[in-house]
UniProtKB/TrEMBL annotation:
The keyword Plastid does not apply. One of its GO terms (biological process) is glucose metabolic process. GO terms for cellular component: cytoplasm. It is an enzyme of class 5 (isomerase). Keywords: Carbohydrate metabolism, Cytoplasm, Isomerase, Phosphoprotein. This is Aldose 1-epimerase. The keyword DNA damage does not apply.
């Protein structure tokens, strides 16, 4: 089937339309499908490779549709990608210190793929797997079996993520079960620019994050264990601030920190997490989640070497991520929310992305 262009054409239907087409063949992995979810306000493309959100087209205040998610024009871009563009990452999102943890008296050693640490599930995490897609009401459910020992993790894990679109809201629902106790922490790693993917930077975006505390990190980006109040720090984003000036106040190359949306032991509930507005276009992204944290990342390690959609070069601070998740290195930090999934238990989390214009 011939590949369609990444369409941001005007949308018509009030209902969400769901369609599927083959998008290509990933060498050594198999065929990859492209699913399209289309409402009257938003159009979303999803790949079965990595459960990747390939595009999100949303309206500005002028009524024009723009694709606000970074990505690639072809499958090869995603197969060779090393920055997790749009992908579901797992088995454990974010960093595990030194790639080691002890569970039920046994020490596990993971591959080291980020300085001295393990990042986003390993060398071949969930972002490089082909998921099985099934149509559901208003969207697609993607499922995957991660075998016992996958990337060094214990237990066979059955995992699924459902993307459903209702009007202006995209919902991601994550579920998992395991045959052995294993750490698990799933998120989507989409990079957003509300001016449109390919815009030079996000300095003119305003961000707010509903967090009273954040996690300071060491020089390899592992949380120190301290849960620090945001008051009087550049991490106080409870009221909207422009990202450009705020980046000048943050130590290091930019934001790459976990903001605490709840405390360990708090009950499971959905909470407002973040809001980002691009005043020039009027586009707004709001994020809510059941997860206890959100990693706010300002694309500090994109360096212009990647060629994205339409020949765009994605540079430092060209986009932002709001990775809803458990706190980083939770498997090694007893004061953090528990990230271990045990046999007979259900892992279940939800994140909602709402795209509007003001």
């Amino acid at each position: 089937m011939k590949k369609k262009a990444a369409g941001c054409e005007r949308l018509r239907s009030e209902m969400t339309q769901v369609s599927r087409q083959q998008w290509g063949e990933a060498v050594g992995l198999g065929p990859v499908d492209l699913w399209v979810l289309q409402s009257s306000q938003v159009r979303v493309e999803v790949l079965t490779l990595g459960a990747i959100i390939r595009s999100v087209c949303s309206r500005g205040k002028d009524g024009q549709m723009e694709d606000v998610v970074l990505g690639y024009d072809d499958l090869e871009g995603y197969v060779s990608d090393k920055r997790y563009l749009g992908a579901v990452v797992g088995r454990v999102a974010n960093r595990i210190a030194r790639g080691r943890f002890v569970l039920e008296g046994k020490e596990y050693q993971l591959d080291i793929n980020n300085g001295p640490n393990a990042l986003h599930g390993g060398l071949r995490g969930f972002n490089k797997a082909i998921w099985h897609g099934t149509a559901v009401e208003g969207g697609v459910q993607l499922s995957l079996t991660s075998p016992d020992g996958d990337q060094g993790y214990p237990g066979e894990v059955q995992v699924s993520v459902s993307y459903t679109l209702q009007g202006e809201r995209l919902t991601a629902e994550y579920q998992a079960r395991s045959t052995k106790a294993t750490p698990i922490n799933l998120t989507n790693h989409s990079y957003f620019n509300l001016a449109g993917q390919g815009a030079a930077d996000i300095y003119d975006h305003a961000v707010s994050i509903s967090a009273q505390s954040y996690l300071p990190v060491d020089d390899s980006s592992i949380p120190t264990g301290e849960i620090r109040r945001v008051d009087g720090t550049p991490f106080d984003l409870r009221k909207p601030v422009l990202i450009g000036p705020q980046l000048k106040e943050v130590p290091g190359p930019g934001f790459d920190h976990n903001f605490c949306l709840s405390s360990p032991g708090d009950p499971w509930t959905e909470r407002h997490a973040a809001r980002v507005c691009h005043p020039a276009s009027g586009r707004v992204l709001e994020v809510s989640t059941s997860q206890p944290g959100v990693q706010f990342y300002t694309a500090n390690f994109l360096d212009g070497s990647m060629t994205g959609k339409g020949g765009s070069r994605y540079g430092k601070h060209s986009s932002f991520c709001l990775e809803t998740q458990n706190w980083p290195d939770a498997v090694n930090q007893v004061s953090f929310p528990d990230c271990v999934l045990r046999p007979g238990e259900d892992y279940k989390h939800v994140t909602r992305f709402t795209f509007t214009a003001v």
